[in-house]
Structure formats: C-alpha cells, structure tokens
Write a structure and sequence with these properties.
- It contains 5 helices and 6 strands.
- It has helices at 40-47, 69-74, 91-101, 106-119, 135-147, and strands at residues 2-11, 14-24, 55-60, 63-64, 76-79, 153-156.
- The strands form 2 sheets. A 4-stranded antiparallel sheet has the order 2-1-3-4. Strands 5-6 form a two-stranded parallel ribbon.
- The longest helix is centred in the C-terminal third of the chain and has 14 residues, at 106-119.
- It starts with a strand and ends in a 6-residue tail after the last strand.
- It binds adenosine-5'-diphosphate and magnesium ion (MG).
- Magnesium ion is lined by residues 40-41, 81, 157.
C-alpha cells in the first residue's frame, strides 16, 4: 500500500528526515511515533505529495507520488496537522465542495457526504460555518473530508488531537 525508500528532506542545512525507508501492507495500521520535531508531519507531507522530498521516493499502491501525483493522491485520504478547512464555509458546503473535487456529482455526491457526516456525527453542525466550531468538531470535519471518497490509504496526522 505504501512504500517509502530512502526518503530525505532538508530545509537549508537542517536534515529533518534522514534516509527513511519502510513499507505498509494492506490491512496494516501503522502508528508513527516520535518526539515533537522528529519529522513525522514532514514525512506525511512528502507521502501525500504536499512537499517534495530532497531525495528518495514514496509510492502509494505503486504510484510514485512525484511522477504519478494525481493517481497516487486519488488513493489517499489525508487529515493534515491542524485540519485546515475553509473557515467561512459551512460544514455542508465544505464537504460538498470536497466531494466535487473528488469527482462526485448528484445523488452519489449526496450519499457520500451523508455517509461521512454520519460516520463522524456532524449532523447537528451541518449549517454552521467551520470557524465557529470547537476544535474537536473542526477535526471531525477534517476527518470527514479525508474519508468522503472511501480511500484505500488513510493518512492521519495527530488524529486524536482535539
Ligand atoms: N517549512 C519548513 N521550513 C523549515 N523547517 C521546517 C519546515 N517544516 C518543518 N520544519 C522543521 O522540521 C522539523 C520536523 O518538523 P515536523 O515534521 O513538523 O515534526 P513532527 O511532526 O514530528 O513534530 C522541525 O524541526 C521543524 O521546525
Ligand atoms: Mg507533527
């Protein structure tokens, strides 16, 4: 499902991820532990195509995240750190927007959004703008957008935060 080979990230002279290799099999749940600043979020950003590595490769279901970025990203649901969402959108309009970005329309879009909303229990805040939600509910919105397309690979940065 995930294959990382010799992944390295440098910011100026500072090596943040140093020659990291590992793989994750289908059905496996991998917890990624380390102290603050260890490079966990940076590794996830490289895995999801959000940051380019200095060297090394990452593959998602065989698709190289740098060569076949969109094909790889279609397989991924990603909850980034802090769960950045558009604060002035309502929960419903944001999730509709994400479902459209993921290529769904009409009845299927409605069903997928409704399913994600039910899974993380967002029914009571659907018409609220995201910036007015508590932190935990913002994180739930971030989780809902990560699962709306039922991805094969789910990458969650600090999923229990909030
Ligand atoms: N865009 C950036 N520019 C410079 N340094 C960065 C940048 N992003 C992260 N870092 C540094 O990389 C290191 C690892 O950060 P991060 O991956 O967020 O750690 P973790 O998620 O394990 O707490 C930290 O020292 C951080 O300051
Ligand atoms: Mg982090």
């Amino acid at each position: 499902m995930i294959e990382i080979s010799k992944l390295t990230k440098r910011f100026a002279q500072h090596t943040v991820v140093d020659d990291l290799s590992f793989s994750v099999e289908r059905g496996e749940v991998l917890g990624f532990l380390g102290p603050n600043g260890a490079g966990k979020s940076t590794t996830m950003k490289m895995l999801t195509g959000f940051l380019a590595p200095t060297s090394g490769t990452a593959r998602i279901l065989g698709f190289d995240i740098q060569q076949d970025t969109l094909k790889a990203q279609r397989q991924i649901g990603y909850l980034p750190e802090g769960a950045p969402c558009y604060g002035d959108m309502t929960v419903r309009s944001f999730l509709d927007f994400i479902a459209e970005v993921r290529g769904f329309k009409g009845a299927e879009k409605r069903q997928r959004v409704a399913r994600a909303v039910a899974q993380v229990e967002l029914e009571n805040v659907l018409e609220q703008s995201i910036e007015t939600l508590s932190k935990g509910f913002k994180r739930r919105v971030g989780l809902a957008q990560a699962i709306v397309h039922d991805p094969k690979v789910l990458i969650l940065d600090e999923p229990t935060d909030g």
